Amino acid sequence: MTGTILGSPDIDRALTRIAHEILERNGGAANIVLLGIPTRGLPLAERLAAKIATVESGFDARERCGALDITMYRDDLYRQPTRTIGPTTLPPQGIDDAVVILVDDVFHTGRTIRAALDAVKDVGRPQSVQLAVLVDRGHRELPIRADFVGKNIPTSRSERVDVHLTEVDGEDAVILTGGER
Asked: What whole-number distance in Å separates Cα of residue 61 and Cα of residue 103?
């Protein structure tokens, strides 16, 4: 199967559901901080924070959302050493004793999240770390799983899942390309 798997309304519904699941699991938003993994995890984190703010009074979406650059924590730097290092921006209160929700677009092998966990330990000591992803495509190489998933899309290793977001790409879509099953 190749083509658009999720359109704009599907992505919006998935993020609304994830926002509610985050609130239910954590008994509200009192201690939640969202950290998006650039590039597309950051706008997803911002959207989730905005959705949480519509449900939870007193939750400031801008003050509780940040970006976590994982470039220097990746285990493939020797393969692609010319990566641009991006900023890590933490909420003003930091992440110590907070429930940190890492947000990314596609969950695949688990290596990006392993790098993110290493980055988190260098910027603070959260109470706990949870993971929210728009798409889980399988093929884990590390014992890591997502706590909140927008859509599970079983793929072959030769297939590619591309997430397009309006903030980065001018449109919202999740597209599956390539491969034979």
From this structure: 14
Q: Classify the phi-psi angles of 149: left when phi > 0, otherwise alpha if psi is within -120 to 50, otherwise beta.
A: beta
109-164, pLDDT tens digit by residue?
999 999 999 999 999 999 999 999 999 999 999 999 999 999 999 999 999 999 99
Instruction: Give CATH for domain 10-77+85-155.
Output: 3.40.50.2020
Q: Please report where in the chains the tokens 């730097």 appear, as a residue.
A: 77
Buried b (16+ CB within 10 A) or exposed e, 23-39: beebeebeebbbbbbbb
- 9 Cβ contact partners less than 8 Å away, ≥ 6 residues apart: none
Count of C-beta atoms within a 10 Å radius of residue 43? 20
**Using one digit for the tens of pLDDT, what is the confidence trace for 28-77?**
999 999 999 999 999 999 999 999 999 999 999 999 999 999 999 988 87
Q: Distance from CA of residue 54 to its chain's centroid? A: 20
